[in-house]
Amino acid sequence: MILGTTSPSLLRNATSPSRRGLGSQGKFPILPRAPLLGELSSGCETERLYRGEVNQRKRVSLFMKIACISLGCPKNQVDLDVMVHILLSAGHETVADLGEADVILVNTCGFIESAKTEAIENILEACAYKQQNPELKVIVTGCLAERYRSQIEEEIPEVDAVVGCASNKAIDSIVARLFHGENHLESYGAKKDFPLGGKRVIGTPAHYAYLKIAEGCNNRCHYCAIPGIRGPLHSRDLADCVAEARWLAGEGVKELIVVAQDPTAYGEDWGKPGSICELLDKLNKVPGLEWIRIMYAYPERITDDFIAAMKRNEKVVPYLDLPIQHCNDTILKNMNRRSNRAELLEVIGKLRREIPGITLRTTLIAGFPGETEEQFEDLCNFVKEVRFDRLGCFAYSAEENTVAAKMDGQIDQETKDRRAELVMQIQTGIMAQKQAEKVGQTVHVLCDGIDEESGLYLCRTTGDAPEVDGNVCVSSEEPLYPGQFYDVLVEDSDLYDLYGTVAK
Fold it and tell me: Which of 27-36, 133-142, 225-234, 248-257 has the lowest mean pLDDT?
């Protein structure tokens, strides 16, 4: 199987995993909301193509019902938001029920094996709706589409169009061409043309939103397929970033989450490393924003200037995700990482000294090629020593066309899984203790909504990123409102969540 180890035929009866985005059906349905960023276009290509147009089977409606499935990271969600704006501007509408759709758009992730499998499952689920609606069109976009291109249609011929990331802005014309009678469309472009922003809907709950400030990556870690998918670093114009942040704040966004493959590299492609500091200074002045969260800060770029920018800008929350991947110097070198163990400990210690109470999250890879039991033990001891607030450990995934996939010393899957599980067992004990220490404290939270099953309000502290970390589950006789801030007395905890009541 080219796209992954699991054959699509074996996935046809698989249940769909959870998914985000317009068209998702979770606890809090997310639907496009007006007003949109900018004016809706008139005289669009879809209208020109379909005014009075009839195909051989039926009259083609000018306006299509489009269901969207978004998988993967927040950057993918932003890409979908832009595409949905284009589709709405062309006169189409989005629907949450896949069974009602004329078009199902699957915005995929294709980073590692598990993400590819999840994407294939969702593509096959979408294609299954053709049994009840033969006229249904299925469009695959995102990283899987960019990475595997024509292979998707070869292996899943039910797919009607495969659209690479550089062709996202042509999504309305792709839909038009499909209903005009064209079949099995493919559309790609140069990686330098990947969209950095643009008019969009807000596909997250109204009070928080992601701001994508760059595309691609220059780090060239030996295990990572992202540069091959998304290309080199391409930073978005600073003024454009700030303008979108102002618009988001005007739409009611309280928490702005700054995302990129490596936000700390922002501006390096202009010859201006450290531009993230200037951006934070400007974002901090945007009226209406109350929290600014930075995701994915690479340790080698956490300079004194960056820490100072976090400290002087009061809206920047004390939270960082440091994707260190390992701690052993030999493994880090083989990964083509730029830090060593001593430097990692230094930057972590400095962050904790300079920003008291900062929440530090990280990701680790277990079972990298050549990792010995001693090197793995080194990793376990590092986790015990540092005591990260949040941590995810993943079994190494050998991705084609990466340096690491060709390395000697590949480790069997059972060993990789065992090692990853052992790291998570260690982290479980650490997290349980850290959570218990918060009982009796009063914490400032942002309300996301209510869990209808339990009746508890789901809130987050500055130490909890949405869709990534846990919740503060609040019992209250008085209603709490999404997007509002409250002080909560923590009365209990479990491994991931805190429980409490509104402080009197």
Answer: 27-36
- CB of 235 within 8 A of CB of 268? yes
Residue 3 lies in a domain: no
Burial of 468 by CB count in 10 Å (0-12 exposed, 13-18 middle, 19+ buried)?
A: middle
What would the mean pLDDT of 40-56 be, rounded to a whole number? 29
Rounded Cα distance, 351 and 308, in Å: 10
Angle between helices 275-283 and 304-312 (to 10 degrees): 0
**65 bridge partner residues:** 93
- Tell me: the pLDDT tens digits for 385-408? 999 999 999 999 999 889 999 999
| Structural domain boundaries enclosing 99 | 8-193
Distance CA 193, CA 202 (A): 22
- Per-residue pLDDT tens for 435-444? 999 999 999 9
One domain for residues 413 and 452:
no
Using 50, 70 and 90 to split pLDDT, how confident is the model at 62?
Answer: low
Distance in angstroms (rounded) separating the CA atoms of residues 406 and 384: 32
**DSSP assignment string, 121-184:** HHHHHHHHGGGT-TT-EEEEEEHHHHHHTHHHHHH-TT--EEE-GGGGGGHHHHHHHHHTT--S
Q: What is the DSSP letter of 438?
A: T
Q: Are residues 399 and 260 in the same domain?
A: yes
Domain containing residue 456: CATH number: 2.40.50.140
| Whole-angstrom distance, CA of residue 41 vs CA of residue 176 | 15
Tokens of 157: 């011929």
345 in the same domain as 267: yes
| Judgement on whether residues 301 and 409 belong to the same structural domain of the protein | yes
- Is residue 330 located within the same domain as residue 254? yes
CA 168 to chain centre: 17
Contacts of 446 (CB under 8 A, 6+ apart): 207, 208, 254, 255, 291, 459, 460, 483, 484, 485
Q: Looking at residue 211, what DSSP letter applies?
A: E
SS3 at position 425 = helix
288-302 pLDDT, tens digit each: 999 999 998 999 999
Q: Are residues 122 and 161 in the same domain?
A: yes
Write the CATH number for 364.
3.80.30.20
Instruction: Confirm whether 202 is domain-assigned.
Output: no
The answer on 483 and 397 residing in a single domain is: no
Same domain for 176 and 233, yes or no, is: no
Share of the chain above pLDDT 70, in %: 88
Total domains present in the chain: 3
Classified as helix, coil or strand, 393 is strand
Note the pLDDT of residue 352: 98
- Determine the average pLDDT of the residues in 251-268: 96
